[in-house]
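Hi R.,

As promised on Friday, here is the backbone we talked about, encoded as structure tokens. Could you run it through your design pipeline when you get a chance and send me back a sequence?
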């Protein structure tokens, strides 16, 4: 998560908790949403190829 913050892909906020210490919450930034879209587009064909290889090896 620290790396995602350094890249500017997530923002964090702290919120008080009624049951313990403050909690950190993460939210995707516009750049983070764009990076996720790009990763998803690259991942899908890769996943399909892996699925094909695994299906053929049975």
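Update: got your reply. Pasting your designed sequence below so it's all in one thread:
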């Amino acid at each position: 998560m620290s790396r995602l913050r350094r890249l500017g892909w997530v923002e964090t906020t702290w919120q008080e908790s009624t049951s313990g210490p403050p909690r950190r919450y993460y939210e995707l930034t516009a750049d983070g949403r764009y990076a996720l879209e790009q990763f998803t587009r690259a991942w899908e064909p890769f996943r399909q190829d892996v699925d094909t290889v695994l299906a053929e090896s049975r």
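One thing I noticed while checking it: Residues 30-56 form the longest helix (27 residues).

Thanks again,
M.
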